[in-house]
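Bug: token stream looks shifted between consecutive jobs. Job 1:
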Amino acid sequence: MDLVAHVAIKLIRIILCKGVKVAYYDSTSQKVLHMKDYDSSPLNPQSFLQAFIVQSLRIAEMENLADEAGAKAHVEKVGLAASGCLEEVARERLNFKGEIDPEQYAELVADIKNHIGGQFQPASSGLGSIRVVNHCCPFGDLVKEAPELCRMTSSVFGAVAARNFGYAKVELHKRIATHDGLCDVRVYLDKELAANHDGDEYHFDDGKVTTKSGSSEVTLHLEECLRKAWCPPNDKSKWQLLKKSRRIVAESASMRKIIGEVEIFAPTLVTILVTGETGVGKEVVARAVHALSKRAYSVFLAVNCGAIPENLIESALFGHEKGAFTDAHQAHEGFFERTDGGTLFLDEVDSLPLSAQARLLRVLQEGEYERVGGHKAHYTDTRIIAASNSNLEHLIAEGRFRQDLYYRINVVPINIPPLRERPDDIIALVSCFLKKLAEKHDGASKVLSESSWAKVFSYSWPGNLRELENVLERSYLFESSSVIEDVFVPIVNEQDNPIENLREAKKKASMEVEARVVKNSLIRARGNVSAVARQIGITPRAMHMKLKTHGIEATIYRK
């Protein structure tokens, strides 16, 4: 018997075991068999969830597919294998025989889900589609720790629809698992109508349901584009390097959307601003933009502006002439000269001093700059991709970032959500990182245990992908067996976090000092806000924002 079908049968027995009778699907006879005597006590949704996760991971480990398609493929396989049995039992309950119409289909799939504890019901839908909503997940809040379980819903709904109508695309429009508050599943039976919607497609050919998930399709398409862009047909060495490089994991709807945007804007010359918390993968997206652009065979240079001392940043970016300053014994090429014809990724662009921001704006507008200490104009054809983990609009209001520069770099904004808002990506990322670790340390492939998965999903990952990878590496090295029984996730009460408390204390002290400086300046300027703004070196608008932030009334200083 096929391993996936075997696991599916085990799970179906668990699902349908209600203390009355048990049914399971025999893949040999392709019939639903009923067992009068089944020596097993019924399991609750929590027990089923745990069993499902463990069995899915075992499939990933035994079939060695986790590195290729991630857990989603395994969940889909189990759902497809289970769908025939589940449909047959539901048809018997509802007394549906022969062909069914879309309304009966909606009732059928709702019945399947409701018999494991859900509250699914058909909802109003348009021509060529079926909509089913749910306000109570069979797994309760636990599904938020294992959102891949929703993929089983997709494969079951899609397989049942494909068998009855020939084609289906399932869109998980909203999900309790991703904190939407409800599940809204939309099944499209019209292929032309489905083309305008995201989702997984299912076909019924020669008595068999086949599928190609939307997320897998878009990821494979991107990887194919990367291969063409970075690797000439006979350059196997570069292709091997590409395979080892970090890929974009896009199981979540938000990351699929980002990949779509990358494919659209990468071939153009527009400037892109990538935002998101530290560690979310901004540089990975920037490299994908470069690889899919016409500059793919030119240089890509990533620069962390925050890591360069303020007094050296202009020299690093634009270069300097011999004798421009002490120790400038020879002329130096800056990043713009080195990336002429290529792509320059400016990470933490918000850390640039205002003088460097002004020079950067000139380069963006005119393609022209001067070396430090020089008077000769240099020209560059460099594409800029900027990135920031700060709110630039707030920095503009505080006078720390130029508004005109912001408008110039923010032609196409791409915001990468934090990992805690992308639970769909976690399983695929874990599989990807564990494969990389096995190659890096020349070791055996390893998977996470059930308790380790629980820790991974319960942690908020403030350091995002970078923190996840580091935690997995430590856990990988400390585990001698093929199953990682424990991951070294920090167990910290965020309210008692000394680091956070220190940051808050520093922030509070800084605010108090700033308020004192503003008040003293207002006293000297007799309440003239414009004069204080000039003295501090910010715009009057930014000065008014500071007064509002500190609750200071300038009028009282005019008396």
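Job 2, same session, no restart:
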Amino acid sequence: MIRFEMFRVHLTSKQNGLFTQADRLRVYADQLQQLSDSDTLGPTGWKLGNLEVIESDNYYFKLGRPLRAKKLEALDGNRFIDVEFPQAPYTHGIFDAQQSVLAIAVNSKVAKTSQIANGFCSLIRGSDILDDLGGKISVSPIIDATELLDRISSAYQISQIRFEFSLPNPLDHNIDIEGPLHRVLKASKTTSGEISLTDPSVDKDIASEIVRSATAQGHEVSVRMKTGRKERSRLFKGGDRQLFALYSESSAVLKTATESMLEVIHKAYRRIRDGSSYP
């Protein structure tokens, strides 16, 4: 069983904060292929190799730091040599470029998944196209807000919701709720902000949608609510449990391993983003 932990990749322009989706996809497609084809390591020792396009704008790759591998010839040219996981000096990565969702398989022999995700960003940061566009890249964990969503569903009263927002992932943001906020960011030439909505009785459906959207985009969110009529109002945060997906080799019977990995990651992401299966 392989555990994938999930992150949101943020790709923005230093000039106006917003890339077109076409720009994003071009940066990723070009740089990932160059990294996989290259025999050289990144400036911090990371190597991305064995790239596979699973389907349009969805990628599988291996990622590691070969110089830290002990008693193993990690590379054969520009490719990682296959080794039984998790003994391998690399880990598995799945990247959905359309959604900007990055999934990293846990392998403590390589590094913590947060360090590996930052290593991925450091390699993309070397893109000539990204540099020409004046772009910057960062990553943040996607939080599994199931517990908070359950509290909202059963709450007696919701009085406040506070959340971070930033320039949108075009496929994910809620037009009605976040659209006006994103217009404010673009008009003020900033890339992120924080807002607090206060009312004696905040609508539960609105609160749930904000929590889903904020956590899926790697942003912090908190909700003040009463769990019962006689209870005091309390503040609940989105949580600190990172969204993960479990892949078992037995699930790859009808599909290739990488297709099956992508499928379980999509399902986990859609569950927390909108409560449905994928697609």
